[in-house]
Specification:
Blueprint lengths: L3 E6 L5 H14 L4 E5 L4 H7 L5 H10 L1 E4 L13 H8 L4 E7 L12 E7 L11 E2 L6 E2 L6 H17 L4 E6 L7 H13 L6 E6 H10 L6 E4 L1 H14 L7 E5 L4 E5 L16 H13 L3 H17 L13 H12 L1
Parallel strand pairs: 1-2, 1-3, 3-12, 5-10, 8-9, 8-10
Antiparallel strand pairs: 4-5, 4-11, 6-7, 11-12
Helix pairs in contact: 1-9, 1-11, 5-6, 7-8, 9-10, 10-11
């Protein structure tokens, strides 16, 4: 069988250690990948003088599939978010953030199974038109929603729901106040929903969504929303299952995809063998499913589930006392 080559961006802080864990687990599961490594973030800035070197862009372009650790964008003027830049560069319009309850995480809930589908390139989060007046008294930013973008992301959400056997899609908006931008998104989403009579559609204002996610999260199945709302809601959902260490993310376009840990680079614990690699391992499971390797994805998911439930070699954020390498080895042993 021809090997698939994956672009791997280890990232900053704890990134290299958790990416190493994910690759060892993928190899043990018999995924038969080749890897081409690339720099981005602070590591790239120090080594190459730029946050995303051309070689990294070329490798993403060539291989079309990327597994990425957390990246740090320096604070200050002149530095654009690396993740936002990559999403725009490769038209990765869909951000897919599933959260699932795992026994043993000490999370508040044990029945969560929600997918947040977030438009990834438009809206307020895209950073368009950001200006500050010369006297520093006024700041502005521009939010643009297009019919094409709204239709593309809502269609993606309904197709995903149908493929995954999901029963309901909740369209989250703020059209009662943001009548132009959020209003257009809701209007288009309603039109798209008519094409999927087999799937229940619910509309919900974003602030009510936050409240209901905390009070009754079991009522949600698939959420589809705009860029900024999706960024906030997906982190809220991660909190329902134990935090960002338990939440993977996929950025998907028409012919390329980047799979990532969604948490930060945690420089305070970098190199200390303390990080929980679950987020990026779950992202690698998303990658396998995207590539049609569902059998390998299920194999790894079952191993992760068993190790977390047993609790003998889990990391501190999961209530354990072990480190990255012990946790990784426990998953590898399960795969054996």
């Amino acid at each position: 069988m021809t090997k698939r080559t994956i672009t791997v961006i280890p990232g900053d802080g704890i990134g290299p250690s958790i990416i190493d864990s994910a690759l060892k687990i993928l190899d043990k599961a018999g995924c038969n990948f080749d890897y081409e490594f690339a720099d981005a973030g602070l590591v790239a800035l120090e080594k190459h003088g730029e946050l995303v070197p051309q070689r990294t862009l070329d490798l993403i372009e060539k291989n079309r599939i990327t597994l990425k650790g957390p990246l740090t964008t320096p604070v200050g003027e002149g530095f654009t978010s690396i993740n936002v830049s990559l999403r725009k560069q490769f038209s990765l319009y869909a951000n897919v953030r599933p959260v699932l309850s795992f026994k043993g995480t000490q999370a508040r809930y044990d029945n969560i199974d929600i997918i947040t589908v977030r438009e990834n390139t438009e809206g307020m989060y895209s950073g368009l038109g950001q200006t500050v007046s010369d006297d520093g008294a006024t700041a502005e930013a521009t939010s643009i929603i297009t019919r094409q973008g709204a239709e593309q992301i809502t269609t993606f959400a309904y197709e995903l729901a149908r493929k995954e056997g999901r029963k309901k899609v909740t369209i989250v908006h703020k059209a009662n106040i943001m009548k132009s931008t959020s209003g257009l998104f809701l209007k288009v989403a309603r039109e798209v929903s008519q094409r999927y009579p087999d799937i229940e559609t619910e509309e919900m204002i974003v602030d009510a969504t936050c409240m209901k996610l905390v009070m009754s999260p079991e009522i949600f199945d698939v959420i589809v929303t705009t860029n900024l709302f999706g960024d906030i809601l997906s982190d809220l959902c991660a909190g329902l299952v134990g935090g960002l260490g338990m939440a993977p993310g996929a950025n998907i376009g028409s012919d390329a995809a980047i799979f990532e840990a969604v948490h930060g680079s945690a420089p305070d614990i970098a190199g200390k063998n303390l990080a929980n690699p679950t987020s990026v391992v779950l992202a690698s499971i998303q990658m396998l499913e995207y590539l049609g390797m569902s059998d390998k994805a299920e194999l790894i998911r079952n191993a992760i589930t068993a190790v977390i439930e047993e609790g003998d070699r889990t990391t501190r954020d999961l209530g354990g006392t072990h480190g990255t390498t012990d946790f990784t080895q426990a998953v590898i042993e399960r795969l054996s």
